[in-house]
Write a structure and sequence with these properties.
With about 675 residues, the protein is an alpha/beta fold. The chain is built from 21 helices and eight strands. α9 runs antiparallel to α13 and α10 crosses α13. The structure holds guanosine-5'-diphosphate.
């Protein structure tokens, strides 16, 4: 019957979910009245449940957008807060508590907020209606309710009682209508009372003659008229039993025959009918306006979609898949590049103890023990784990994850979990296999000669570097200049030593002071630039070092070093052989136990822990973490919803047209 209202309420709900746009407005019934006028009682009588918060301390601080949805065949009534996603709430005490909490979340200092609370109530016993409950007008300001609050409430109400909304002005019968702020506001904005319904509550508190007088409304005529109600049964002020209230109301109006006249409208039932009727008519009037508005909005949205995204569609799901794919792709690239040679490279760095550190060590065995003893397994494994973790950090901080810090954390968490689970086995394996080396390192002839070769190569490389650097200095400074500076440095050194000796001699002899001596010296000598002196010192250092390297090379190439039996004469070669053996073992086990395992497991964990774990909501949320994607999705959603609304509206327009063509059955 009231199909138009029902359909347009559905449409209104969809439009509200896109935005609270002023242009896409469908009429709603706005309930205004002073505090304690009986506003809540009327609303509860219409709904048939007690669900509004009660109390003296301004319990309505936000507008409540109440959508009643007639659901024939549904046994149980329930409420829903679409903004909160709590699901169906069958217990209306809980609805009441939730409303109370939502209202109380507005701080006392702000008094009221114009952010609406959406509440939907589904029941077989409610008509399809949208009602907006607003904070009650306050009459007299006092300490708790200052003038400022009074204005704020009035402003809020003014915002809602605009076209095309229907105003339900609630006044108590026992208060002079002239004092009703609800009627006053309505007259200001709707002077003819074309869209105002007067609801006179507490009819039981006035004599029937007075009551009838008020309802005839000769002082404040309203086009839509007045309806009198009684919304409380006596002695039942706390718990309202709706059927008892309605029974009481019916009995009351039956008792008083004066209310039984044709031009007098009383009772909650009549009020409901009236609301349905008025809303249906109002919806009908709004239909063509909203069709135009939606059409315009839809065209604009389609245009934007074309211009901004070239009609390219994206979904949260496809975005998640793309992001994860690129992670896996990058991971695969990394895994492909990080194999034995890379592990070897990392570990070799660790084992390449600088030859200088043990050069003076004659006891080669001691050095070998030091190398094999100290938890090489742990160290090498840790080193590779660190390198892997660094790389994973890099992968998860790649561009596609910059908007998803939580997911980054999650990935790093299970990455380190996998590492932890492999760490001990790997390092134990390495440790176990090198254990025999702690007692004895057997070296075959070929291993030895390889070791010698490698050591020679190393030293030659270093020597070449030394020469290169020395040459650089020579070229920068100039050969003869450098030579002179070097001579000066050497002279000064010699002079220094001599001076030192003389000072000591003087001190021993006991004549003259050291100061005398200091001023007496320094004949005319060329003055050298301190930077040049620095260079000269560097060149000298390199010369010394090259000399030592040459000695070491000579040792390695000598007959002494031809055989492993002489390892005590060739510590470099021997330690090199040990380092090579350790590295080989470590690389092998780290590759098998750590790398392969990790490379196998990681992509599976990504699927198990990220992709398969996400529900629809989380997928949406993930996509919306990325602002450009969120914008894209929002525009698409807007377009889809507007298209859906347009379809529904077209159907309604056609239906209205059909109905107007057909003559009404009499
Ligand atoms: P609100 O502040 O405008 O929402 O008013 P309420 O609905 O909370 O009602 C204020 C007081 O008036 C409460 O104590 C109600 O029990 C009482 N009340 C509401 N309707 C009636 C009625 O029809 N008759 C009588 N006698 N009292 C009523």
């Amino acid at each position: 019957l009231m199909l138009l209202t029902k359909k347009l309420i559905e449409i209104r709900t969809i439009l509200l979910s896109i935005d609270h746009n002023e242009t896409l407005k469908l009429p709603s019934i706005v309930v205004v009245g002073s505090q304690s006028s009986g506003k809540s009682s009327v609303l509860e009588a219409i709904v048939g449940h007690e669900f509004l918060p009660k109390g003296n301390n301004m319990v309505t601080r936000r507008p409540i957008e109440l959508t009643l949805i007639h659901t024939p065949g549904e046994d149980e009534d329930y409420g829903e807060f679409p903004q909160l996603g709590l699901g169906k709430i069958h217990d209306f005490k809980k609805v009441q508590k939730t409303l109370f909490d939502l209202n109380m979340a507005v701080p006392e200092s702000e008094c009221v907020s114009d952010e609406p609370i959406e509440l939907r109530i589904y029941s077989a016993n409610v008509p399809d209606l949208t009602l907006i409950d607003l904070p009650g007008y306050i009459q007299i300001s006092n300490r708790n309710q200052p003038e400022m609050l009074k204005h704020k409430i009035e402003e809020l109400c003014d915002k809602y009682i605009r076209e095309p909304n229907i105003i339900l002005a609630v006044c108590a019968a026992n208060v002079d209508l002239a004092n009703s702020p609800a009627l006053r506001a309505s007259r200001r904005i709707d002077p003819l009372g074309m869209r105002t319904i007067g609801v006179i509550t507490k009819m039981d508190l006035v004599a029937p003659e007075v009551g009838v007088g008020i309802l005839r409304n000769s002082d404040y005529p309203l086009h839509l008229g007045y309806i009198g109600v009684v919304c409380r049964s006596p002695g039942d002020s706390l718990r309202t039993n709706s059927s008892a209230v309605i029974k009481h109301e019916q009995d009351f109006f039956h008792q008083h025959l004066m209310y039984n006249q044709r031009d007098i409208h009383v009772g909650t039932g009549t009020l409901r009918q009236k609301l349905m009727h008025v809303l249906e008519q109002s919806m009908g009037r709004s239909l063509y306006g909203i069709v135009d508005a939606v059409q315009l909005e839809l065209e604009e949205t389609r245009y934007q979609f074309k211009v901004q995204y070239n009609d390219r569609r994206v979904t949260a799901e496809s975005y998640v898949a793309e992001t994860i794919d690129s992670l896996k792709h990058n991971f695969k690239d990394f895994a492909g590049q990080f194999g034995k040679p890379q592990v070897r490279h990392e570990i070799a760095d660790l084992n390449k103890a600088s030859p200088d550190d043990f050069y003076w060590l004659y006891k080669v065995d001691l050095a070998a023990a030091a190398l094999t003893k100290s938890g090489i397994g742990r160290m090498t494994t840790q080193l590779v784990v660190d390198v892997l973790m660094n790389n994973m950090e890099r992968l998860t901080h790649a561009e596609q994850f910059q908007h998803h810090p939580d997911t980054q954390k999650q990935i790093m968490n299970f990455t380190s979990e996998i590492m932890r689970s492999k760490f001990l086995t790997t390092s134990d394996q390495v440790e176990n296999t090198i254990k025999p080396y702690k007692y004895e390192v057997e070296v075959t002839d070929s291993e030895w000669s390889e070791g010698v070769k490698r050591s020679i190569l190393l030293l030659e490389k270093e020597l070449a570097m030394c020469d290169q650097m020395a040459n650089n200095i020579k070229n920068a400074v100039g050969k003869s200049k450098l030579k002179a500076a070097i001579r000066h440095v050497l002279d000064a050194d010699r002079e220094d030593t001599r001076r030192q000796e003389r000072l000591q001699q003087l001190a021993k002899d006991g004549n003259g002071s050291s100061e005398d001596y200091i001023y007496e010296d320094d004949d005319v000598k060329p003055i050298y630039n301190p930077r040049l002196i620095e260079k000269a010192k560097e060149a000298l250092f390199l010369r010394d070092r090259a000399m030592i390297l040459k000695y070491r090379l000579a040792a390695l190439k000598s007959r002494q070093c031809k055989s492993a039996d002489n390892k005590q004469y060739c510590p470099e070669a021997f330690l090199n052989v040990i380092a090579e053996k350790l590295t080989y073992t470590a690389v092998m086990f780290i590759q098998v136990e750590l790398l392969n395992e990790f490379f196998f497991q990681f992509p599976r964990e990504v699927d198990d822990r990220l992709v398969y774990q996400m529900n629809r909501r989380q997928i949406q949320q993930f996509a919306k973490e990325n602002p450009p994607i969120a914008k894209h999705l929002a525009l698409m959603e807007r377009k889809t919803k507007l298209e859906e609304v347009m379809d529904k509206l077209n159907y309604l327009v056609k239906r209205q047209a059909d109905r107007q063509e057909k003559p009404k059955p009499t």
